[in-house]
Amino acid sequence: MFPQPSAVVKKPTIEVYDGFENGYGKWKVTGSAFGTSPASGNYTDQSRLTGIAGSGVVNSYLNGDSSTGKMVSDDFTIKDDYIIFKLGGGRHATTTCFNLIVDNNIVRNMTGTNTETLEERFWDVKELKGKRAHFEIIDAEKGGWGHINLDDIGFSDMPVVKGKYYPVNHPYFGNASLSVLASNGLADADYTGIADGNNADSASTPVADKITGRVGESFDLQPGQVKEITFLLTWYFPNRPSYYFGSDITDVIPNDWNQALPTDGATIIGNMYSNWFSSSEDVALYLQKNYNRLSKETHLFHDTYYNNSTVPYWLSQRLLMPLSTLATETCQWWANNKFWAWEGVGSCVGTCTHVWNYEQALAHFFPELERNIRERTDFDVSFQKDGSVLARNGWGGVLIDGHAGTVLKSYREYLNSKDDIFLTRNWDRIKRATEFIIREDGNEDGLIEKVQANTYDIAFYGANTYVGSLYLAALKAGSAMASMMNDTAFARRCSKIAQAGEENSVKRLWNGEYFVQDVNLKEHTEYQYKDGCLSDQLFGQAWNHLNNLGYIYPKEKVRRTLESIWKYNWAPDVAVQNKIHPPERTYAAFGEPGLLVCTWPKSTHMGEKGVRYRDEVWTGIEYQVATNMIYEGMVDEGLSIVKGVDERYSPQKHNPWNEIECGDHYARALASWGVMLALQDYFYDGPKGIIGFNPKIQSSHFEGFFTTAEGWGNIRQDQQDRQQKNSVSIKYGNLSLQQMQLHCDKKPVSIKVLINNKAVKHNYLFDNNRLSVFFAKTSLQANDVVDVTIAY
Description:
By secondary structure, the chain is α+β, with helices and mostly antiparallel strands.
């Protein structure tokens, strides 16, 4: 195992050449870009500079990017091993650069990275020691990022300065270990080659020099023998810095996505694992002690999900792949036990209500983390006195689609709990959030007509079913939760408004094929969709299906709308649309299939005046529309959309685990799990101990995967002419169960219920092909099986 680095480290010896605190005395300056003296920071129309320590800095943005200039230093003799400096600005190798000149030749060159953060950089100049040299600072670029920022030039015996030697409280402090699980293992902290017979326990070297370690195992193999060796790579970086709303430098990095974050003055929020481990070696020791159990449980999950299933492999794989987003930098679990997430890696902060509105996978695989978002964000820092829920972890205003989603998600989190504690603890704020959106309605006619900021980074005006369907679904969820909390008056109020909303939506927005937007384009001239066919127009209905709360609009109109979305918005080749109407961003290339955000089959395409992102393809929308279609019996259409995603993200083209939108590993794609729930018509109510399923594919012989509040396993259905058998098998964790809801084509003649092959007392209700089987509450553990056999 590699040794852990010490918190006490050697500091560099630095001779400052110029920190630009006293003018340009060592430099000859030409052109207009650099001015007559160093800048004190950023200029008026320039983003704030970070990474500067003193009062002066070279900044060639004096007159904007169009100005040019050059600075040439006095000659000096190179005496040290390294030249160190801080550099920012444009990434142009010859036109915004810092050069070292020896014998009239450029021997070293460095540029910025298109950021206003001055990053610590260095040149290794050992072979140039003793030579005369000078510096050049060049700004010959007139285009974008046509400027350079430079500060704190010095000479050092070590390659970098200050913050690169990380004390224990520094954001970058941490360590990594390489280990081998072996009874005859060996480790050498200072490996010099195959002839090295010594195994050093520890070793150190100047930071600039390399050091090599090794771990392994010694053994003999006979011809034909095979031996497996397990190596562990573990890491421990406990000091995650905060650059999010409420931290000390939030305002300086709003657009520096996918760039290294500055570390000076950062607030440390840490990683959750720092509460469990103290070093990378500690992690390795935990793995050593628990390896067999962890390996067994990992393989058990794999077999349960993939092997014990009749769902086609490509489909199982595609629907699970977005779950990998939870293991990327999109998602963070802070040391204070708060779960927080971007929209995508480094893009748009705050576990935002509107993008995460589509997500279903986290809620069903890790329901405790989903409840964490509700209780640590939505109903905590984001919750306002008037009942509104801010969009981004305590700021960002109210986006009404995400606000409605907060109510919907609260009901889902109740369903995915083992008891009603979550609902009881949060009901006051859930109700107030529901009351807020009712006030946005104004007259309780079930339509929201005022300004409606939303996930399209614009605002809709006038009645529409994108926001409207989410509102009505939230009312349905609010009514259901109010009933459980014995608040019958509020339950009736929500139901009454929802009924009015259904009737008024049909009356005002139904055009015979789909729902439109009732908006005055003379007053609201941009970013509306009017009579366009918006793919997301029944988003609330998808939510209502997933929450098992029925229809918010007439069933036949829901079906007809989805048929219209398939007819008008599904493109086997997006080139047909995108050659005429280019997307703002491209997520589906010419020749690839995709579901377009919006089309205008009844009128002229609205172009730049239409809803933003109209000509794009978002996988999150595709998954939620596919979910809705499958619930409505449009299985072929729904799976065609999912297959389109799978084709676009084939490994020959892209990383198949990285579905991109505004950032890598984008959270909206976590809507994928809704498709699996729809395919199985799976429903779980943890507090009431109910599981229901009705497979939409392979119904005569179906095996699938399910999750609950504290466990997971397999469901199965087998149908014959006069018999049907449904099973629930727990593979991991536990499940409290007292009712199963199933689909039967005929009225049962008899029913038998077995738990682990033992008959149990039961009764049942059969209504409109729905069979509810009741038995005494049973606590099921791993490997327990419930079988319901139905005879016709």
